[in-house]
Amino acid sequence: MSPPAPADPTPPSRYDEQPSLGEIKINHTVVAGIVRLAALRIPGVSGVGGGIVDGISELFAKKDFDHRGVRVTEDAEDHYYIELRLIIAFGAEIGKTAYEVQVAVRNQVSAMTGKGVRKVDVIIEGVRLPPDPSGVAAPDRHDEVWPEVSATD
């Protein structure tokens, strides 16, 4: 009696396309985590977060806090569409930073999931001053051009 023939040693082009072993599915919250981490590695990105609508929907949907500000959808051809809301560091060039985020997100999601990314929409939600390196809170700054208008957050 001869041993059974070995399975095809050639790995599939995509590891989630091997029906003989079962399915591999990637939850969209995992993809959102990849998106968030890829964006935060780009210089000039101060944070990833959503606006008030995301905050309210998070309360009702009990979404994971770490994925706020990232929306991931998938089409019938298994390509991702990503919407990402960013807080940019004051002084960063917004267009360049957003473009670098788009490229980094597309490359990282494709590399980690093996699936294509059709679109990465970046929405700039705000600008944040970097923290004072000394750790001491800066005194209130007043607008020197329009002194009668107080600065607000």
Helix content: 25-40%
| CATH homologous superfamily (4th level) name of the domain at 28-128 | Cation efflux protein, cytoplasmic domain
Which parts are unreliable, with pLDDT below 50 for 5 consecutive residues or more? 62-66, 142-146
Stated plainly, the CATH topology of the domain at 28-128 is called: Alpha-Beta Plaits
The structural class is alpha+beta
Gross CATH architecture of the domain at 28-128: 2-Layer Sandwich
The CATH class of the domain at 28-128 is Alpha Beta
Number of strands: 4
The residue-averaged pLDDT reads: 78
> How many distinct helices?
3
Element layout with pairings:
Elements: H1 28-40, E1 45-48, H2 52-61, E2 70-74, E3 80-89, H3 94-113, E4 117-128
Parallel strand pairs: 3-4
Antiparallel strand pairs: 1-3, 2-3
Helix pairs in contact: 1-3
